[in-house]
Amino acid sequence: xxxxxxxxxxxxxxxxxxxxxxxxxxxxxxxxxxxxxxxxxxxxxxxxxxxxxxxxxxxxxxxxxxxxxxxxxxxxxxxxxxxxxxxxxxxxxxxxxxxxxxxxxxxxxxxxxxxxxxxxxxxxxxxxxxxxxxxxxxxxxxxxxxxxxxxxxxxxxxxxxxxxxxxxxxxxxxxxxxxxxxxxxxxxxxxxxxxxxxxxxxxxxxxxxxxxxxxxxxxxxxxxxxxxxxxxxxxxxxxxxxxxxxxxxxxxxxxxxxxxxxxxxxxxxxxxxxxxxxxxxxxxxxxxxxxxxxxxxxxxxxxxxxxxxxx
Amino acid sequence: xxxxxxxxxxxxxxxxxxxxxxxxxxxxxxxxxxxxxxxxxxxxxxxxxxxxxxxxxxxxxxxxxxxxxxxxxxxxxxxxxxxxxxxxxxxxxxxxxxxxxxxxxxxxxxxxxxxxxxxxxxxxxxxxxxxxxxxxxxxxxxxxxxxxxxxxxxxxxxxxxxxxxxxxxxxxxxxxxxxxxxxxxxxxxxxxxxxxxxxxxxxxxxxxxxxxxxxxxxxxxxxxxxxxxxxxxxxxxxxxxxxxxxxxxxxxxxxxxxxxxxxxxxxxxxxxxxxxxxxxxxxxxxxxxxxxxxxxxxxxxxxxxxxxxxx
Lengths: 311, 311
What we know:
Two copies of one chain form a homodimer. Chain A has ten helices and ten strands. Chain A has helices spanning about 10-30, 75-80, 140-155, 160-170, 190-195, 200-225, 230-250, 255-260, 265-270, 290-295; strands at about 35-40, 45-55, 60-75, 90-100, 110-120, 125-130, 170-175, 180, 185-190, 275. The first copy, chain A, is of the alpha+beta class. Strand 10 (about 275) of chain A pairs antiparallel with strand 10 (about 275) of chain B, so a sheet runs across the interface.
């Protein structure tokens, strides 16, 4: 399935860089108060990144939109993690996003699109989007999955069911037996071998996932940011953020890989919220909104076919 | 080096259980306001534990003192983690403590003493104490190490240098290149083979480590709890607690082992503070007390021989 039309790493890197710009613009416009600040950094073996953070905005309390394109000889750590036996040069580029809003009625969101290649010619794409509401809104969760299904279906009707399940399994806090949020899609190691599609076709899918992010999240920002909330609801947000921290530091393979292979700590850990809390054995009251939210933090919910009313 | 005088698991369990009682009493007395609440729990394969938490005390904001004694067939996860090849029954007992105070001038402390045995007759003791000041007090850090050295020297003058270095290496936040605090002692896999001491002699050492905890920490509590502090210093405490969370969730083998082998999540994660914060790329001001503290969060400081003035 090789073709002359296959995208090279320069084209992919350029797309991701522009995607970062577009997403930052969209979030700034929706936030209306603060702008992203940028840190440029260089990777020890080659390349580098643009870490962008928005802090204390009108809607976003702390949000990162990171781009990087790094390369060099694969380190021993990387070879072990990726199960590569021979010496090789690598090239990795991607965009990674986490947004933590002030208002507990606005969900946390995460998106990542990435490309990796080795000097022996192997390559793969990976990525995903998942939504973590502090308070479940069934209508919005369903709409989120419908949008992702649309994006997937345009490229392969097999994608959504498979990548939705992959997200359920990936964004799972094993020791809590709960999902991080309402899931989304997750995919990895996409290439000609795994998909029977050309590199161009796979890249087109990944591009569309990346481009879906800004309209999805800015709508959630503007729709929910005006909702009122109590001190108790703010505290629940901090507890849910604690679970977000637990997932990212204990189970997220991307975070662990980054920290173990000498990635830039501050760029990796921009995913952590400004503030999180842990109460021993916290359990929401019977019949509460918090309990309702917890009841939806599980695998296998068929969001697209859920019958819900707008509210 | 086997002897008829060797302690059996019943004696060891009984000691740890009483140690939990004595330490809780001492902390309650020093705190003066709140008492520990107890949760009894059972392990799925046998045995169980007593999780005790003190919350919103006069001095301690959130502190756990846990005892457990669990047994049963070693699970596949446990065998993989412990590199055991054959089927075996295990027995594990220990006391584990983390105290998070309100006042940033009072350090966080951790202590653990534990015993593990397998049905094939192999056994080992492990444990450690380490201190994590939010603000370094050189005199107190030195006194802490002096006390630990005294405890070690009574049993073997080789212990302190070896276990102090082990703590430096263990309580290390690799991705930050900083130690969790000013260290202490750490030891593992102590038995007749590794030490050329009888089981009774090793147990006597572990007992004395456990018994050293209460006088060390209650003195720090009562000496420092009256010190005044600012909002900025409280914020710095929350940042340091964030590093504590990072260490425990990313690097602490005990936490990872517990979460991966189906340990009781709420008992394991009682080590997390009530509240922690993360600011992107935070860096203390030149010449500040925060910068001074950071400068001591490194391996290899010879605390016992450091020349310091009381302050």
